[in-house]
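User: Here's a chain of 315 residues. Predict its fold as tokens.
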Amino acid sequence: MPYMRFGIATLLLMSCAAPQPADPPTHIVFVTGDEEYRSEESMPMLAKILKRDYGFDVTVLYALNEEGYIDPNVLDNIAGLNALEEADMMVMFTRFRALPDSQAKYILDFAESGKPMAGFRTATHAFLYRDDAARVHLNDDWPIKVFGQKWITHHGHFDDGANPLTDVTLIEDMADHPVLSGVEPFQAYSWLYHVHGGDYALYGDSEPLLMGKALKSGHANNNRLDRFPLTNPVAWTKTYTGASGTAARVFFTTLGHPYDFKDASMRRLALNGILWALGHDVPEGGANAALAAPFDPNNSGFGDKFKAGMRPEDL
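Assistant: Prediction complete.
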């Protein structure tokens, strides 16, 4: 009988105990807003893959016009940035934004939080505040410290979208890094950005993973290859320690032309980088790079080259 009494008591305690809440899914916020490289198409594509394969909660934010349509030419409005207050990771692909303080504060506060981040291509020049002494540090100093470099120069467009412009190869000593799992050498349509060499160096503990070699270069015509060599890092990892005192993992790539993302290795690189920054295990052979939905982006370019008439819910 004592055994029975113990068993009944145990069952009663178990039945009265409150159920343990499940951990909420990882929440990633993608901040888009570049008027050249169609981040409003590539970032939701990545978000859909991450949601499909990992069950992440994903939010993609866009530059919107007054009518609520996606318009990357609107430089001073990215709707919904308050979502970063509860986010576990921020992915940035913006270019020369001049956001009001009421919006920019969410990006800046997140960067100081110690939570992971990833950046693509023009996030080296995420902001541009002209003649604004109070915020001019966001133009160059902020991306250098957070992502590893600022905007410097590139090797040239040369028939944008017609042919690849950069050979991308793995750095041999880094071939076993999780971010490179399943990533093969490929040719990118992104023209090569200069980030290291001459008078410039990647910032802090930046650790290059991939090298790019410009297939054509305007600097060759100007005899400036000693300052801006034909080879440069195109992807790296680093950390950023902000006001929280916690070192955040950061993944960055200067690649990001919309046609780059048609290549499975480019998609896998991006997905692996996000998983690594989050501290998730990268699967053997890398993340599944199969598209979760059709992806047929417009070519890069300014002006009206983006797909007009799209609302966030359409993507």
